[in-house]
Each structure stands twice: as C-alpha cells, then as structure tokens.
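Re-run with default settings, no changes from the original entry. Doing this only to confirm the output is reproducible before filing.
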Amino acid sequence: MYVSSYYFDKFEKTPHSLSLQGSTTGTLKKESNGNQYLQAKVNSAAEVNRYLRRAFGDNTLYTPFSTRMKLGFDSNVPNMQEIVVGKKTGKATLEYRWNLRSDASNNGSYINQIRLIWYPGKLKSGEVYPAVPNEELTMEGTTDYNVQLIVQYTSAEGKKTTYNEYHNLNTMNTFTAKLYQTVSMSVDESEAIIVHVAGQEVLKSNILKDARTENSCEGRMSINNWELYIPNGDAGKNIPLVYIDDAHASNTGILE
C-alpha cells in the first residue's frame, strides 16, 4: 500500500531535520553500501536519557497520524532494567513521544501526550524486566512488562491525568548490535494506537480512545512534535550508539 509522506528524512544532507536536546551528539555516518544515516548518543554525566525532536509547526496537523523510523544500535545495545547516571536513575529504554497541543475544537480539555516506551534488547543474565505497579498484570497476563503505553489528558482547569497500559511482548525486544528495524507508532481513524516492528503489527490498543471517552473529549487531536528518547549507558559508560534512518511521518495512512 502506498502512503504519501507528510515528512521524510533519509539523513543524506546537512543540516538534517531533527533537533537534539542538550548533551546529545548526532553524527552523520555511512554504511558500507554508501547509505548515510544519523548516529546518536547521550553525552552526559548527569542524565539517563535525552531526546531528538521533529517539530512540525503545523496547527492543522491532526490524527489520524503515523510516525516511523528505522532504528538500531551500532554498539552497546541496552541490556539492563535500570541505569544510574550521576544522581538519577532511569530505565534503559527507547521511547516515541508525541506532544500534542490544545486545539480550538477541544474547548480547553485535550490529550497532551501519547508515549510508547520499550526495552529494545534482551536483558543480560541476572537482570529482570520491571514488575507492573500495584501488583497488577500486563494485558498479556504477566506480572512483568517490557512495553508501556502512556496517554496524558489535560482538563480545562489545567489538571493532568495519566493513563498507563503495560505489555509483555517478544516482538519489540529483538534488537541486537547492527540489526536495524523499522518501528512505527500510529493513531488511526478509530483512535486506536497501533505499533509495527519490521512491517508487522505487534500491538493495538484502545487506551487513547478510552481516555478520550472517559473525559468526554471534544474535537480533534493536534500533533505538535515527535520525539525519540534514547538511553545513556550505566554510569555514563558503554553508551549505546543509536542508528537512526528513514524518519517518516504521514497523515494519509498507517506506516507499517
């Protein structure tokens, strides 16, 4: 199925289209076949992760919407549940985050964030995935999780409410060094969140639709920017070198 591009970057020229949060390094590299890509890493002795952002600057950009990158690790695939950098502790995960803006059609209350967080690789011996909070279970019925969906709602009074959904999947923690795969996150016409890895649907959730229904959300969901969060190395050592290519966004169809 052909899907037209709202935004596309193959990282073939400088400057590329992503902005880097402070303490993030991005370098254009070439593979042996001549393909150019962006290699990114966290360069901080104090932060557990950093982001790369694509700001769209379009007040008329609404869902349905779909984003996809080709991702991987040139080296140092994360293999720990948590990392400690300086005085901060965080999870050794990748994250897609959409930040949304309030639209005139929302009457002041709106969804302000949609997030997909996942452990990209197998954990080393002795490490375990985190337990679902409050002794609850994942959607698959396990007590531990390796994928998390987060939706945040802002009321007309400015109060934020966060909704979480946990999964234990063997389809997203499949990265090994120099294995590069596409990962997409989409919201379709029915307000379902859909995730694809390497062209295969691995997750479909109604958490977004349910949050909007519970809060009687009106109007359309307006996309402000798209962020990719990448992890530091534990104690700032063995820092993951993240491969990024083919950044793609579409508002005409689902990117698989």
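The chain has one helix and 17 strands. The first strand starts at residue 7 and ends at 9.
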